[in-house]
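User: For documentation purposes, I need each entry recorded in a consistent format: the amino acid sequence on its own, followed directly by the corresponding structure tokens. There are two entries in this batch. Please keep commentary to a minimum and don't merge the entries.

Assistant: Recorded as requested. Entry 1:
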Amino acid sequence: MVHYDPMITLGIDSGTQSTKTIALDITTGQILASAQQSYGFVPTHEEGAMEQDPSLWITAVETTITEVLEKLGVRRSEVAGIGVSGQQHGLVLLDDQGEVVRPAKLWCDTSTVTQCKELTEQLGGEESVVALIGNAMLPGYTAPKILWVYQNEPENWAKTASVLLPHDYINWWLTGNLSMEYGDASGTALLDVATRTWSQPVLEAVAPALEEKLPPLRSSSEPAGKLRAELMTYWQLTQNITVSAGGGDNMMGAIGTGNVRPGIMTASLGTSGTLYAFSETPVVDPQGEIAAFCDSTGYWMPLACTMNVTLVTELTRALFPGWSHLIYDTQAATVPAGSDGLLLLPYLAGERTPNLPRGCGVLHGITTKNLTAPHLARAAMEGVTLGLAYGLDRFRALGVTPTEIRITGGGSQSQFWRQLCADIFGVPTVCLTSSEGAALGAAIQAAWSTLEHPSTEVLHSLCDQLGTLDESTRCLPDPTNGEIYKKLLERANTLRNTLTQANLL
């Protein structure tokens, strides 16, 4: 148990669609206040492009912090730390005056397929790339986005003085310091994750003098800096407030779900899906399907990412006007495991794991019996969860075996879906008492960063203390259903491979 003087930390989760700020009482674990602001995307005609104006993030951070502090009232004087979680892989370019050069290209931007192929070939093939950085060169990562700008917008690249990730940009606004911590940096495809150093061959292949534009690398336990004096005055704060290193949303989600020890895995059921674990050593997938990331605690975090989870189930639910989430679950539950043979390959937005950036969805096994609304509902849920199970199989092949999977994201609110995950994964699942995930992780890391000598033991204690499990949500695998899903996953893999080889997917 860690004992602190009365302290409040702010956790900021700056995501693709909104930013949320929470105020966490470190002594009691209570979330005292929260605020959220949504935003949209920059319209673009480029195929696969997804872009956002970084000023929207700053406005949302400023607005939500202001609202949270107003809710705290006199207790705002207890705020001692701020932590930022940001969407991974996004490309933020600043000029020498600190102005944004162009809209940020986001993690879900798949316009860089050509650049990925060019970099992979130039670096000697996929096996060589994995050997250099621990990861394959995928469209979601930052490196091909940089090459895209260098090739397509040379005037913007010429203006660029600093290359940042989204959470780095927010940290810079909060502190005035440019920096990048190892966890988020490992998602750029520029970092050798085993040594936590920039890969010189990759830097040279992407753009001339790229290293000069990258901020200093630092340990995740080292703060980004102190809150700027102007912001202290603006928010009427009195303490010398520490801004922690922060990290990518998955890295902060790991801290927020207590995924800081071997055996624990986190599965996020959001618009997209992620499955990630803790490791004391780098976990490199020779096939490049499991990302070999660093975490934001000083260790490593192998991760599988899928592009299609609640994106698919929400589109399916929209087919049936009047269906609430509860009705959806109730209807899906009337259908047996395996949906009477109806199988969905859920690649509606392309896919990252497996790497099918131009993929599409496939509904297979349609019969007169299973072409019903309840069957479609269950097949959608099963299809996206099997997509994550594909990643889990790769984890097991690499020697990472979970004993418990902690479920987060919007889909985690469904008891039916939590049980479905347990059956398909073959591992007990459970949720936390808090659904804040990344924001909670950012607030916990902020508390950790206020210490003079932050240790792993203290971080473990903070996670146990502040990220408690909700045992009422625990689900145990059903072995009978598990056998059905094992065969269904084999069928999905065969179908996908066959269609891919025929250039039909």
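Entry 2:
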Amino acid sequence: MTADRSPLADLGGFDEIIDVRSPAEFAEDHIPGAINCPVLDDAQRAEVGTLYKQVSPFEARKIGAALVSENIARHLRQRFLGKARDWKPLIYCWRGGNRSGSMTTVFRAIGWKASQLEGGYKTWRGHVVAQLGRLPRAFAFQVICGPTGSGKTRILQALAARGEQVLDLETLASHKGSVLGVLPGQPQPSQKWFETLLLCELERFDPARPVFVEAESRKIGRLHVPDTLIERIRTGECISIDATLAARVAFLLADYDYFLTMSDLLNERLAMLGSLHSAETMTRWRGMIAAADWPALVRELLEQHYDPLYRRSQAHNFSGYGALNDALAGGDPASFATDDLSATGITAIAARIVHSRTAQIA
């Protein structure tokens, strides 16, 4: 390895990580903690690429060099003039080529110990994919199960507040995991950034301790849970939240309160269920929305759509679900009944789960 190139294994040995790719490339995914200092912005990258294909590589390189030089000079003036002589940055582009090489050359000429990431972002992406294929196998997952409205994500957050290891997939995905799971004003991350976030979470866990996670499908909104991770979750030990229907309705009315002032969005999302329910049912639900009869709407959605879907999904996808049902017949504490899904009630459920696990270990 040359002095101006570094492997991914040396990532932690630098004062700063600089991603010189375009803003669109950076937004899709990047090394966590990196800053974006593009040597070609999105429009410039497209311009150079068009010249390369339609005119000649030589003409593209001339324009590209001029633009890269201008942008590096601007970054130097605006962001880096105050850096000390011993500052040590790692610089990367798509595959460790000309874009990162140009900035590395300039920075090293100044006297900084700049280094170019060997293989660039592609090396990082390969690392993420490989680790997500391996790392989930190291953990024992405790899977929080329960029909829609059982407060599973809130219970995970309460467990995390008690110091437990928690993988909160829905928060990472910016989606609540159902047809109505879209979060207004919170777009989902790209698939690649979602996977980077997943890896960062998994890397901080201790394999000697359980990891609590919510029972999920393979897709959360438009994002896919990586195969190895979903397979490990589906073989985990299931913990059932057995909340009353009234408690679930009350919880959902509070948790999805934004829909109460966004009837158009609610109608749009519910229309996606049209192929699964009769025209009469869909008309009745739209009438409930028009009349703002939210408790009746939520109750019917649970009873006629979400609960049957949940039962089919759990029995089919989670091997621990059958074991849970067998255990319940014998009074096993793997099921937690409640009629209170308020903040206080959820905190109490989390405490019961931790106490039950501690008692089993003892």
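Summary note for entry 2:
The longest strand covers residues 237-243.
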